[in-house]
Specification:
Blueprint: E1 5-11, E2 44-49, H1 56-60, E3 63-65, E4 85-90, E5 93-97, H2 105-113, H3 123-133, H4 135-146, E6 155-156, E7 160-166, E8 172-176, E9 207-214, E10 220-224, H5 230-237, E11 255-260, E12 266-271, H6 287-290, E13 298-304, H7 313-327, E14 336-341, H8 348-358, E15 364-366, H9 375-394
Parallel strand pairs: 1-3, 2-4, 10-12, 10-13, 13-14, 14-15
Antiparallel strand pairs: 1-9, 2-8, 5-7, 5-9, 6-7, 11-12
Length: 395
């Protein structure tokens, strides 16, 4: 199971309450106040880890609740602090603080003015009716929401505010801050009030609903039409074993493979589900997986040069560039390389010649992923390309 977005509830630990106690000891008839302080609660902390590749842990445990602080005790003993709850998430996780639901009092007054027996349409149903009757408007809204600036502090109409973007291994973010423990009555003794009989309650910890969205941080992103051979190529260069079949949309979620070299160098390769015409408008799998290629260092456009699904390779190339540009123009600024797959088919050689005539000044690497032909050249190509991209980013 691959989970790349999940809604969770998080609550930090409440602080322990302060104690109301007085010193009692033999031969001391009137001991002073000795109530201890309450312990601090535990924080809810998210930690990025490169050992994870999806949010399946939060899928099975969507409620993150930290330990509360222990209450204060007599004899001046403070309560124990609650342990922090550290939750590991994959690198590339974006944390959105969902807006709190607001109660619309105007609806109550409107309902009161309606005659009895009049049908009432909930606001959520009304919104769904508007979106279904005006499909064009709904698509434009979704597109604008996806193309918003994904920077910390940016606000989305549906996801709320982006509060954290965990991109590096070991990076931590305090999702909910714990409450402080209350002070015991020994802290309130004064010369005029030497026996206070009150103490502070512990502070409540922060809580809220959050939306976790994963954008895979891979070195290489393989993009192409359905049934172009992306999963076959990933299986040929790594130990990943995605499902491979002779029909479109075999891959329904991204697959991650580790490309290893003899000198122990490693690259992360992401196989994105097939892109079709209109993907930028959320057609097909659309926005759900296009976001995963935003953080890839290089893009590999894999083309079915044999045209087995009655499509022309040069048309596929142009359409892929168009979809990437319409979804996010910044994707075209990434280094991209064209790989022609299925070169063992009879029509592939002729199509490759036509492709070079129609699409000039674009280098093409011919391979046959199913039989490991040209795979060694492909590995060397992506390694050099990733090293160049990293060097360019460091300048």
């Amino acid at each position: 199971m691959f989970i790349d977005e999940i809604k969770i509830f998080a609550r930090a630990g409440h602080g322990g309450k302060g104690a109301i106690a007085f010193h009692r000891e033999a031969y001391i008839t009137k001991g002073g106040p000795s109530g201890g302080n309450g312990g601090r609660g535990g924080d809810v902390i998210l930690e990025a880890s490169h050992d994870l590749n999806n949010l399946i842990g939060q899928f099975f445990n969507p409620r993150l609740i930290a330990e509360v602080g222990q209450g204060g005790m007599g004899k001046g003993m403070d309560g124990r602090a609650g342990e922090d709850l550290v939750v590991k998430v994959p690198c590339g996780t974006m944390v959105w603080a969902l807006p709190k639901p607001e109660v619309d009092l105007s609806e109550e007054t409107e309902d009161a003015s309606k005659p009895k027996g009049a049908p009432t349409i909930p606001s959520s149903h009304a919104r769904s009716v508007i979106r279904s009757t005006d499909g064009a408007q709904a698509r434009e809204y979704n597109l604008a929401d996806e193309e918003e600036a994904a920077e910390v502090g940016s606000v989305s109409a549906e996801k709320g505010e982006l509060v954290a973007d965990l991109t590096t291994h070991g990076q931590r973010f305090v999702l909910c801050k714990a409450g402080r423990g209350g002070l015991g009555n020994r802290n309130f003794a004064t010369a005029r009030h030497q026996t206070p009989r009150f103490a502070q309650p512990g502070e409540a910890g922060d809580e809220g609903d959050f939306f976790l969205e994963l954008r895979i941080m891979a070195d290489v992103g393989i993009v192409g039409y359905p049934n172009a051979g992306k999963s076959t190529l990933l299986a040929a260069i790594s130990h990943a074993r995605p499902k491979v079949a002779a029909y479109p949309f075999t891959t329904l979620h991204p697959h991650i493979g580790i490309l290893e070299y003899p000198d122990w160098h490693r690259l992360t390769v992401c196989d994105v589900p097939g892109i079709i015409e209109g993907a930028h408008m959320n057609v097909g799998l659309g926005h759900k997986f296009l976001r995963h290629i935003k953080r890839c260092k290089i893009l590999v456009l894999l083309l079915d040069m044999a045209g087995t699904d009655a499509r022309e390779p040069w048309d596929d190339y142009k359409q892929l560039l168009s979809e990437l540009n319409l979804y996010d123009p910044a994707l075209l600024d990434k280094p991209r390389y064209v790989v022609a797959n299925k070169m063992d088919e009879p029509q592939a050689e002729a199509n490759l010649k036509k492709f070079k005539q129609k699409i000039r000044r674009v280098p093409v690497l011919p391979i046959t992923a199913a039989f490991d032909e040209g795979v060694a050249k492909f590995k060397q190509l992506v390694r050099e390309a990733v090293e160049e991209a990293i060097a360019a980013d460091e300048k």
